[in-house]
Write a structure and sequence with these properties.
heterodimer; A: alpha+beta; D-Maltodextrin-Binding Protein, domain 2; 4 domains; 30 strands; B: about 300 residues; alpha+beta; Sortase, Chain: A
Chain lengths: ~950, ~300
Amino acid sequence: MTTRRMRAARILFASALLLTGVAAIVPAFTGESTAAAENAVSRTVTATRTFTDQDGTETVVSSNKVSLQVSQTENLRGRQEIRVSWSGAVPTGGIVGDPNSSDGRNQEYPFVLLECRGVDTQGQVEKGQVRLSPETCWTQTSTERYLAAASQTPSWRFDAYADADEREAIVGRPDPLPEECAAVSEPLTAHWLPFRAAGGEVYYGGPDPSVGCTPMAPESDSAEAGGLPSNTTYGITGTDGRGETDFAVWTAAENASLGCSPSVDCALVAVPIVGVSCDAWGAELTTKAGVPLTEAQLASGDATCRRTGAYEPGTPRSSETTDQAVRGNLWWSESNWRNRITVPLHFAASGSICDVMSDEPPVEIMGSVVANELTASWRPAFCTDDDLFTFTHVQQADSLARQLVNSGEIDAALTTAPPADGYQRPLVQAPIAFGGFAIAFSIDDATQQRREELNLNARLIAKLLTSSYPALPMVRDNHPSIGGNPFNITLDPEFQELNPGLPESSTLEAAAALQVFSSSTDLVWALTSWINSDPEARAWLNGEADPWGMTVNANYQDIVLPVDNWPLLDGFIAPQWYIDQNACYANSPTPYMQLISNPPSNLASVLLNMQFASSAAATVCRYDGYDPTTLPLRQQGRQTVGYRFVLGLVSLSAAERYNLRTASLESVGGTFVAPDSAGLKAAAGLLKADDDASVWEIDYKKMGSASKSLAAAAGGAYPGAMPIYAVVPTSGLDEADATKFAQLLCYAGDDGQTSGRANGQLPPGYLPLTEANGLGDLRDYTLSAVSAVRAQGGTTPALDADAPSAEEACDFRVAPPKPSETPSTDGNGGGTPVVDAPIAPGIEPGGGKPGKGNGPAEAPVVQASTVLTSGQSSAFGQVGVPGILIVAIACAIAGALMRWWDPLERAAVAAGPKAKKLSRSVFRRGKRRA
Amino acid sequence: MTTLQAHGPTVLHDGAIDASPPPGGGDRQPLQVGLSQVLLALSLVLGWLLLYILVLSGLEQGHAQSSLYERLRTELALGTAPTGAPIAAGAPVALLSIPGAGVEDTVVVEGTRAVQLQDGPGHVLGSVLPGQRGVSVIAGRSLTFGGPFGTIAELPAGAPITVTTAQGTFVYEVTGARLRGDPVPPPPATDGSRLTLVTAIRGAGLGGLQAGETVYVDADLTGDAADPGAVATADIGTKLMSAKFDTTSLALLALGLQLLVGSLAAFVWAWNRWSRAAAWIAGGPCVLAALWLVSSLGSRLLPALI
């Protein structure tokens, strides 16, 4: 019997090994292929332009072999920017500043990039998808889709490749035409390109949508007055035929009319504009009324169509009109559209699928915004896995989350800093990620090109934070303490020394402040810890002038750092003459420097401002028809491309997601370190164990040190690094919750540390907790924490405890391990009780259970082959109706007994034969009472 | 002048006080009477609830069905019946007959929220319409509101299901039922069509009043499928088997309850002022109507499939 069992166990063990091997190899293959697809997509097309004469002879005018590279097409997320570069295209002329503005459409030979819904194929379109066409491509304004002319011969009518009905005088007009449109204009020729929204609606756009001629999609913004800027790009090709740009991809969350999602296919379509291939005689062209065009009209139209550009390549737009045949607004014409390069985009499922996938209420985890991208990636992976659970990450101030978990109001928190006076509740702070803060910027250099690199030190950031730049003459002349300082950072010699080649401007109010959001966050705590540790910055804050004579704003002098919420201390109110002349400011004369800093309310706003270069300074007074007694001060808003300058505090992972440029910060020994993996890895070397608080903290003392010897040892450490801890109680949780959090920690200690952009992986901007990165101790401690959380014995493992292996700690089929040692009280009394990590009891081999490798190995194979029905159930449906029936009967019997107990009792006393009579009397009596 | 004189001195009785209850008040404690009345009233209310859930709600769906049938018939004749999104929630989309489960010419409406399933089986948003290529899903109640899908789980393989839409009449054959954890059959061929019916499964005997788990019944099309129309986005607000407290229903329910209280007050007033018969004639229907309205609104808060 026993031997047979042993044999069975061995066979199972062997098959488990085999399956593990298969399971390990299969994802390795797929992983490679996705990695390759993620990294880059490259496509090439040959775009030609031809002219056809009246006798039918064709001349090739230009032929360009255009190649396109796209940095990422898999696992895309909303508003993410991907890098698109191209070569071999016709150089652009008549260039405008902002290639995302609708004005870009009138450039000559732009490289048009659009996001379009659908599959670009000649064959059958898959069910649930649409065929990609110009009508499913998004443009923000109607002028990019609608062309009307007071001429019979606009160039698009001469398109050799267009069908005859696409060359009529009026194309694509809604039928019947709404009356309002007829009232607006009556052009001789018009080309309408409707937009087909994901919901099936058709938006015609048409002339002047502001008068309500035909409706536009709700996301469109013909006035380009605000909101998200368009992602339609009229890219600029240099004279060498190359160009590059960042393209923000939108999901249905940003643009429901476009409607891109993991299940709705979308693509990036690049249309290299080569100009219309002209053929004046290929189709019978008529006027709107049906009269054929005359030879003279055709000849002059043909001449217009054959023009190849009014501007020299590379020249900016001036007053001269661009040639219509080579403009970007003909991107949909067949001559241009046929050369398109379509790159399918694949979006990662977002956390919103959890609402549909799972009927269990999510576990709430509160805290750190630094973990946003991490939870955004893990959450969909968790809720779609039956073995895991659904959770949500409530983004909240870290300090509040710590306080709530300490008081037991929430079950778990994500945070970086330990509380100043420790936790009063037994809990464990398990490292789950190693991220950081970044100073993001959007700055244009003297040649109006986007700046890619920036160096900042702690003192410069302290100058921005403390409102020490006066920003404008009124403040300089009247402020009590900052009058002698440069207007803003671009005029600061220290900044100029670190970043040569940036233009100086005395009017850039946005360059006088760092955008830091106003709620409490450990991002600010880490930033101010670093500033505090830097001897030069600290000395400057204490009132010492910098080598160029700049001094700190007196309101901030000797400020105690670190803080987790940057205080606005400057109370300077503008003088009376300024109040008198500024009606908006007169309505509420608030401290002026606070209007310049004007902190956005949350991280998302800062990110938007950085991505689209919006200044937060609320100093704009616009007399725009409002009652002058209620005129508000407004934010400066988007800056002109070519003259951008904004700086903001964001998390590193968010900067990676939104493709923000991030500054290199001054590190140990005065070197400037970029926030990349190498910088984070070096920063991991500066982690020091704090046994009292049971966490590892960045050693800011060393970070700020200028010592050369230390720089040799810990050189290149990025000062913005921040470990993120999951704070989970080790007593008071019920078993189900404890298991869930233990699963989360198991995931964080193992699978979750694989870098990648797919759901469930560790997104860019975090350093994996691995031995190779010098974070093995932290990973081990997470596994120790698993045992403590599962045991719920009220213990906190010591930082240097021997960690159990992942397999032992995370085998959820065996009972939670019991900690063997009793907690030893800490002599200082400040911290929580500390014991060595409990070690999970091993499983007896051959003890009647299948080998323990069996479960994990089998799972992927089963999931790959079949999908299981996910049913729902309802407790009400199970017991509701029978329950009501039983309760109703019980109530009726109890009520009747209580009411008529006496007569019944009497009846019981009376003889049996009288029972019938009595019951009748009861009935009568009951009737009377009713 | 007369002087007021007492008739006699006050007499004190020092015997036992007559503690017997006053005549006509009965010999039971008022608490007991009150409790018994509360219990009897509760049993009456619960009885009404059962009556409504199991019988009267069926009449309500029958009424809704007859007007929906008229509307769908007209739309089919005019050719205006929907073939793709957008379709207004609650609008009729198809006619369903399942001879093996006692479903005969039942109108399928668009949407699967509780309020739509009160009118008839509902087409799940996000799936194609019945008869079109792809998988079409129809959810229906199994117990309340006539329980149109009450016995579909017992359909044998091969049982026919007939659906009529604007694109024609389609006959499906049942391939099987599945519960939570059962494997989902592979998707139909590219030109095939599948109809999946969803309801809450009922047990046998007294368990027939239980309907706690979802059951899916798959059926494959026997003929040619029609071209799919536009598909609406899935209604993520729908949880077929969980109670949903949306503010609209709660607000309507509050108004309905006010109506009920008002009509009860009027009934009591009439009971005291008018003759009993008059009170019954005038107030009875009002109270009944208000009670029905409240029950109908209240049942929107119950899981949609039951």
